[in-house]
Description:
This protein has 747 residues and is α+β, with helices and mostly antiparallel strands. The protein folds into 5 domains: 4-192, Orthogonal Bundle (Hypothetical protein af1432); 217-371, Beta Polymerase, domain 2; 375-487, Beta-grasp domain (Ubiquitin-like (UB roll), Roll), CATH 3.10.20.30; 492-657, no CATH class; 665-746, ACT domain (Alpha-Beta Plaits), CATH 3.30.70.260.
Amino acid sequence: MSNLQPATTGRSSLAAVNAAAASFAALTAKLGYLGASDIEQVRRAYRFADEAHLGQIRGSGEPYITHPIAVAAQCADWKLDAQALMAALLHDAIEDCGVNKPELIERFGAPVAELVDGLTKLEKLAFTTREENQAESFRKMLLAMARDVRVILIKLADRTHNMRTLGDLPRLKWKRIADETLDIFAPIAHRLGLNVTYRELQDLSFRHLHPWRYNTLAKALTRSRGRRRDVIRKARTEIEAAFKSAGLPVRIEGREKTLFSIYRKMDGKHLSFAQVTDIYGFRVIVDDITTCYTALGVLHQLYKPLPGKFKDYIAIPKINGYQSLHTTLIGPFGTNIEFQMRTEAMHRVAESGVAAHWLYKADDPEGAGSQNLGNQWLQSLLDIQHETHDASEFWDHIKIDLFPDAVYVFTPKSQIMAMPRGATVVDFAYTIHSDIGHRTVAAKINGEQVPLRTELRNGDVVEVITAPVANPNPGWLGFVRTGRARSKIRHHLKTRALDESRDLGQKMLSQSLRAEGIDTLPADDDAHHSLWDRLLRFSGNRTRADLLTDIGLGKRVASIVAKRLARLLVESGAKTDPLLMSRERFTAHESVSQGALLLDGSEGSSVQFATCCRPIPGDEIVGYLGHGEGVAVHAADCAIAQRLQHRDQERFIAVEWSDEPSRAFETDLLLTVTAGKGVLARVASALARAEVNITHLQMQPESTQETTELRFTVAVDNSEQLATVLRSLKRTPAVLKAQRMRNGHAS
């Protein structure tokens, strides 16, 4: 939608004056590449759109149909097919004119209707905020784009024309629209290789965000052209002569930095306009890749190259498929001039990007490869969509991946991978495959072991080390850079947490059912389908898995569900075991209890060990079933647990340590030591000899007192090992007292 205004009498005469621009003839001149039947299809779409928008006037006073015609004309410049041109003409019909999708399917076919639908904002849905509406509309457009890249090409043509006519809207709207264009649409154009559109959108956004700065720079650039005209003319004459002398047929084009790129360089590097030296440049277009490098040699013999300013984007293309050789040379009168060497095919891709597929597919076999430009990124949008159902979160992922800078790294087999700047080893692992990312445990860069959060640099050779039992760490979300990695990690963590809660819920329900005198939980099979169905109607859950998950999360009380299930089982003919019921109910707090949950530390996020008392194997423990938080395990003598028992007794369950815990458990130590050099080293050595890991250390600020306190968090196997650790510490010189901390107090 663009600059739509209600029709008014005052503007009707102006609309009549501009009627010529609203006619199909304004578009016909650009459709020579289409067949007669295709042109007739486009004409039908124009007539329908013209009738649908009848009476609507743009902010400029022109008939509204001039906007769809301008969008279609831009698409025709890209030589898009008839379906895309029809969608361009109809792109506002659903949103602004009350036309529905079935009507478009009936009149113009499903492909055209799908394109239009992908471009339509979700006006009919109720959103709580403008941001949510915008995010959901953008999400829909991107997903449609992932299925058919013509959607985004039409959208970019639409946004380009809107930006060209933004001056017709009130200034209050300029900032929002220009910001959105600069943040979202210009980066998409860059990502898809549409460099002409990318530069125009940037300049138009700059013009409306900072009108005074734009006009000042435009005047400075105009004056600069006059001053440097002789330099450019002399340089062109000399390079043409050099190529003619070398016998190289070339085509030379002038290039000028856009106002926005000049401004960004001035702002980023704190330069004045006079200090920006590479405003002008040349493109040298040749027949083949070998001649690109030969042309580079000719230029380096003619002018001296500026050190560090050579880039080979032919051997390693940019992430959007762009290829060229770049070099900056010291030209006539000491002026820096940038040169770009490329083939005709590279030039088409550089200017038109993805659109080069349609633009040259008829007569250029190389052009067919351009269809895949950006497809890896487009496909990744669908992957993220499967795992992210929140519109704002989805948009966050996309904005992360729109960042245009990239680094190029290698796999151990020398395959080149393009990653966003700032990407880490974990991002690299997920780029290869989600299973590789999930199982990552370590990594090497250039043969050396590095932390997983290490940022990648150009030229790094990255090797990922995996383990079959590994799982993503929630801490990875704090440093991963790509939307793909972030969504994959979140999805895996959510799925794993639900699986763990379901398993815990099954254990808890089985335990409670034993207390009702029934030894085993009914199987999830056809024989018990009716039984589970009746129980689910009682609990309000949709599936057995949902019910067990809710029990594990504490949203349902296992004993209540078990009583209902036992009653249903008895009604269906099952018999209770009084001996089992007696043993489970009356020994629930005895060490011989067979109904208690056994804990070995492998339960995952469904079981949390309370940080207030940090229980370890050997301590007496109790389990508190939080509301939607799983089970929190406390030491039996924990003051917080005792307060909870007094207030919420029915939410406590019996828990016991397994005979063979699967990992170490953290506990807190308080050490009183004499102040002096080397004390910390001696304490750390004592802990190392006791074979425990230090996970956290807190020291008092330096003071003039003779003693100080050290607080350690260490990981131990059980209370016996903790006792050994404390004895070892007490024998260490300079340690005056060593105690275990619980609830903030020594014990």
